[in-house]
Amino acid sequence: MPRSRELTRQRILDAAYLLFRSRGYARVSIGDIAAASTITKRTLYRHFDSKDVILEEVLKAQHRLALAASRTLSHFSDSTDDLVDALFADIVAWSATPRWAGSGFTRLVVELADFPGHPAHAIARKHKAMLEVHVANQLKRLNVASPAERARQIWVLAEGAMVSMLIHRDPAYVEIAADAAKELLLRERRYKRRTS
Amino acid sequence: MPRSRELTRQRILDAAYLLFRSRGYARVSIGDIAAASTITKRTLYRHFDSKDVILEEVLKAQHRLALAASRTLSHFSDSTDDLVDALFADIVAWSATPRWAGSGFTRLVVELADFPGHPAHAIARKHKAMLEVHVANQLKRLNVASPAERARQIWVLAEGAMVSMLIHRDPAYVEIAADAAKELLLRERRYKRRTS
C-alpha cells in the first residue's frame, strides 16, 4: 500500500475511533467520519466500503493495542488484594474522565445487541476473553485455586461495576465490587491453604 | 383528557416501547414511531414534543410496572441460595428470548452515556435503586448482615452477568456470577451466626 494511501486510511480510522468513542455507533454517519477526517465521502469510500468495515478495523486496532499492553505490562501484583485494587482503581480513575461512556467494546455490544451477527460482537468477545485470561494468569501466579473461574467472576464484577458507574455515577458501586472480589479471592486462598 | 386522545397517546407509547426495546434509542426515529402507531407524524406531534419526551414516558411506565410487580411479588425465597437462584435463573431464561438486548434501562444508559443530563438517566437510576432495595429487603428478611451492601454487590453481579451474556452469549457467565453471589451471602451468614 503506498504511504499516502496508508496515511489517509489511518486518518479515517483515528477520526472514526474518536467519534465512536464519544457517540457510540448509531449516531455516527459516514459523512461525520469523512468530515472529521477532512476528506470527501467519495475519498472515504475508496478506502472503506461501509461504516461496519470501519468499525471492525477500529475494534481490531483497539484489541491489538490492549493485547500489546497486557503483554508488556510491568505491574505485577504482590497479593490478590493488590491485583483487585489496581483493577478497580483503574475503573474509578477512568470513569472520572469527562464524557466517560464505559468500555467501548461493551457499549458496541449493547448498542448492536439486535444484530448478533455483526462483526463487532466477535471482536468484543475475543477482546474480553483476552482480558479475562490476563487476570487468570495473574491469579495463577499468586497461587489462587481455580484461577480461570475466579478471573471470570472478577470480570463479571468489573463489567457490572462499569455499568453501575454509568447508571449511578457513584464510585461506591466500584468499591463494593472490589470488596466482593477480594472476599471471593480470600476464600479461595484459605481453601487452598487448608487442602495443600 | 378525552378517551380517544388517551388511547392514541397510549398507542404511541406502546409502539415506541417495542421499537426502543428492539433497536435501542438512536436507531428509532419519530417517523418510525408514527408509522408503527399507524398515525401521521403531524398527529404524533400533537401528543409529544420530541422523541426524548416519548422515551421519558416509556421508561416511567416501565418503572411503574416493575415497581408494582415487586410489591405484589408472591415469591419469597426460603434461603439466600434460593433467592440467588431465582434472580440469576431469570437472567438465563430472559436472555434466551430472541433478539434479547439485556436490561432496557441499562441499554439506554449506555447508549446515552454522552448525554448525562438526559432524563433517561434519572429514571434508570431510580429504577435500578428500586430493584436493589427489593433484594435488600429480602436479604434482611433472611437475616443476612449488611443487607444493603450485599444487595448492591448482588446487583453489580447481575448487571455484569447480563452484560457478559450479551458479549459471550454463554450462560456459564451467569452461573459463575450466581456462584459468587451465593459465596458472598454464605460468608455473611456464617459471620452473623458467629457474632450473634
How would you describe the overall organization of this protein?
- The structure is a homodimer of 196-residue chains.
- With 196 residues, chain A is mostly helical.
- Chain A has a domain at 75-195: Tetracycline Repressor, domain 2 (Orthogonal Bundle), CATH 1.10.357.10.
- Chain A has helices at residues 3-23, 30-36, 41-47, 51-72, 80-95, 104-111, 119-141, 147-168, 172-195.
- In chain A, helix 1 crosses helix 2 (30-36) and helix 1 packs across helix 4.
- The longest helix of chain A is centred in the C-terminal third of the chain and has 24 residues, at 172-195.
- Chains A and B meet through helix 6, helix 7, helix 8 and helix 9 of A and helix 6, helix 7, helix 8 and helix 9 of B.
Topology:
Two copies of one chain form a homodimer.
Chain A: H1 3-23, H2 30-36, H3 41-47, H4 51-72, H5 80-95, H6 104-111, H7 119-141, H8 147-168, H9 172-195
Helix pairs in contact in A: 1-2, 1-4, 4-7, 5-8, 5-9, 6-7, 7-8, 8-9
The CATH class of one domain in chain A, by name, is Mainly Alpha
N- and C-termini, Cα separation of chain A: 58 Å
CATH superfamily of one domain in chain A: Tetracycline Repressor, domain 2
Q: Please state the average pLDDT score of chain A.
A: 90
Backbone shape of chain A? elongated
Query: CATH architecture of one domain in chain A, please?
Result: Orthogonal Bundle
- Topology order of chain A in helix (H) and strand (E) letters: HHHHHHHHH
CATH topology of one domain in chain A: Tetracycline Repressor, domain 2
Helix count, DSSP H or I runs of 4 or more residues of chain A: 9
Main beta sheet of chain A, described?
Answer: none
Low-confidence stretches of chain A: none
Oligomer: homodimer
Write down the Rg of chain A. 20 Å
Proportion of residues in β-strands of chain A: under 5%
Chains forming the largest contact? A-B, 48 and 48 residues
**Helical/strand content category of chain A:** mainly alpha
Number of strands of chain A: 0
Helix content of chain A: over 70%
